Amino acid sequence: MAENKYFVDDRVIIPDYIKKMSKEQLQETIKKLEEELKLKKESA
After folding, report:
1. Contact yes or no for 6/14 (Cβ under 8 A)
2. Rounded to whole angstroms, how far apart are CA atoms 21 and 9?
3. What is the value of pTM for the model shown?
4. I need a surface site. Which of 23, 26, 27, 38 has the fewest CB within 10 A?
């Protein structure tokens, strides 16, 4: 149990707008977010 010292909860509520996205929309959104994160890491 020591490895879970900081573990709080694994429940996640996925909003309906995400559940209703098509596979293509999800992939595009994930790609966009990953690119934004990459840019933020490079500028930091």
Report:
1. no
2. 26
3. 0.62
4. 23
Can you tell me the mean pLDDT for 3-32?
Answer: 86
> Which tokens go with 37?
């994160």
Cα distance between residue 44 and residue 42, in whole Å = 6
Q: In whole numbers, what is the pLDDT of the chain averaged over residues?
A: 86
Location of structure tokens 């909003």: 15
Confirm if 29 and 21 have CB atoms less than 8 A apart.
Answer: yes
> What DSSP character marks residue 3?
G
**CA quadruple 33, 31, 41, 6: dihedral sign:** positive
Among all chains, which residue has been given the structure tokens 């573990």?
7
- Alpha carbon distance 14, 8 (integer Å): 18
